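To the wet lab folks,

You asked to see what we're planning to order before we commit. Fair enough. Below is the target structure as tokens, and below that is the sequence we designed to fit it. If anything looks off to you, flag it before the synthesis order goes out.
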């Protein structure tokens, strides 16, 4: 069987050249006479690889020197809990701007550890909008203001940072990291599960402003402390070595292709073509999201008649267009257009959609 065009929301498509390189290096890596999975994370070769991966992230995202780059575990979900434990005092207020399923979960998971306040919530629009900039206020006493930069399930993305005054913005970038230019200095914390634009699951990338590492937070074991992870080069314990290695290969692949600027151009081209096909389908397909809030990475769309969903999924998969089924919260279809998905995949999807509507219209 050959590889299909993979529209999965995550774990998601990885760059083929990266997979080929990993395949070529699988049995023997870095002159170690063993694979990267079989050597000590404290050995010279692995430490050099880890340092290069950090340097490449700093280059790709233009990370200022007063930020630490951490390679952590636990998925983004674990950090929904660890963020308040590290950044808020017990009972302290932390503000949440909720624009989708993941933001709602982040606020809920913070409850045992601080006093999360949902200052804006677009649930009444079924998470198809962004709150207007002046329609909510971040409390100056809040430990931080949390957003989800791109809501993977709902297909809603902030076009830029929110204004939280002097309160640090903490942003879950799991599904949009490295997809477009981000001014890191506008955020206190940027964190992302790896399994969309970075590499395999099991790894969380975090950029954290160093003054936040000095916050007292709450009593916690070392393994739960961002400051301890930063002090130990993210090697307090054994990290997910293969995921870290593969992430490093993805960073190199991105740099070889011109970095984030190149992928942003490609991502805008892919997303605008697909949205144009949906909007121009005469109502056969529909994306429910407000135009300025539409995501570059995750495009949910519905067929005008849900009775056609099963045939659409069956036939698209047979045509090599994989994992288009929408999330159960939203229904319909969802096409995820991460960095590693080539424009040709979107072109093939658009062709298929036009053909399917012609045959079923
Ligand atoms: N936040 C966002 C925006 C996500 O898309 C996801 C996973 N799809 C998560 C958090 C949860 O990530 P994990 O499964 O790595 O905990």
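Sequence we intend to order:
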């Amino acid at each position: 069987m050959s590889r299909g065009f993979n529209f999965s929301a995550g774990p998601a498509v990885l760059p083929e050249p990266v997979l080929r390189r990993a395949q070529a290096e699988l049995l023997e890596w870095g002159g170690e006479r063993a694979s990267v999975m079989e050597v000590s994370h404290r050995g010279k070769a692995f430490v050099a690889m880890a340092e290069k991966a950090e340097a490449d992230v700093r280059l790709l995202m233009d990370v200022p020197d007063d930020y630490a780059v951490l390679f952590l575990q636990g998925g983004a979900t674990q950090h929904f809990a660890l963020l308040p434990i590290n950044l808020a005092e017990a009972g302290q207020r932390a503000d949440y701007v909720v624009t989708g399923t993941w933001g709602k979960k982040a606020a809920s998971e913070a409850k045992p550890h601080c006093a999360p306040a949902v200052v804006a919530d677009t649930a009444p629009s079924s998470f198809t909008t962004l709150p207007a900039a002046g329609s909510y206020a971040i409390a100056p006493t809040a430990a931080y203001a949390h957003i989800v930069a791109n809501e993977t399930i709902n297909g809603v993305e902030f076009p830029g940072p929110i204004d939280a005054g002097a309160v640090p913005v903490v942003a879950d970038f799991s599904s949009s990291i490295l997809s477009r230019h981000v001014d890191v200095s506008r955020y206190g914390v940027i964190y992302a599960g790896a399994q969309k634009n970075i590499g395999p699951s099991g790894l969380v990338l975090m950029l954290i402003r160093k003054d936040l590492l000095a916050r007292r937070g709450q009593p916690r074991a070392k393994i739960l402390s961002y400051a301890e992870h930063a002090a130990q080069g993210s090697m307090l314990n054994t990290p997910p070595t293969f995921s870290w290695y593969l992430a490093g290969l993805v960073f190199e692949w991105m740099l070889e292709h011109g970095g984030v600027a190149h992928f942003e151009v490609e991502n805008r081209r892919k997303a605008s073509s697909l949205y144009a096909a949906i909007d121009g389908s005469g109502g056969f397909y529909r994306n429910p999201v407000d135009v300025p809030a539409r995501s570059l990475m995750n495009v949910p769309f519905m067929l005008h008649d849900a009775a056609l969903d099963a045939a659409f999924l069956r036939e698209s998969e047979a045509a090599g267009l994989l994992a288009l089924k929408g999330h159960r919260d939203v229904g319909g279809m969802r096409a995820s257009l991460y960095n590693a998905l080539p424009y040709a995949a979107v072109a093939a999807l658009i062709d298929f959609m036009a053909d399917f509507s012609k045959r079923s219209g």
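Structural context that might help your review: The mean pLDDT is 98. Residues 10, 75-77, 102, 148, 152, 172, 174-175, 193 surround 4'-deoxy-4'-aminopyridoxal-5'-phosphate (CB under 6 Å).

Thanks,
Computational group
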